[in-house]
């Protein structure tokens, strides 16, 4: 009886050690990738919200979330690439996010430089401009969603391995 208990205890310790040494780093890596990708998404949403407020009101107070979000997104994007390291699947997903982000950033820079108060455009032209930005942001959001799905699936797989 005591020998059986010792064997069960040994096997439990062995499997726990395996989980700590093999699975835990993978789970942690995927969790951190997902967390950082979400932080970049939040920064991007802050930018988009700020720009919409700016374009709708011409009040410079709305450019603050755009500026802070831009800084946070840039820092987070660099961190994501670093975190991916030599993981080609994660790096590919992150590159897709960065390409979509860069396309939206081009639109956003134009939006931040507009001054609707001093040179107004027609409501139809503003609507079209905003729809163009939304389309670019939707591409970014889709790339982020694909990456998040990959990261969470890989985390879940690491938990079951």
Task: Report what the structure shows.
This protein has 161 residues and is mostly helical. It has a single domain (27-160), classed as Four Helix Bundle (Hemerythrin (Met), subunit A). The protein contains four helices and no strands. Helix 1 (2-57) packs parallel to helix 3 (88-113), helix 1 runs antiparallel to helix 4 (123-160) and helix 3 packs antiparallel against helix 4. The chain is elongated, with a radius of gyration of 23 Å. The two termini are 31 Å apart. The mean pLDDT is 88.
Can you describe this structure in just a few lines?
The chain has four helices and no strands. It has 161 residues and is mainly α. The protein has one domain: Four Helix Bundle (Hemerythrin (Met), subunit A) (Up-down Bundle), CATH 1.20.120.
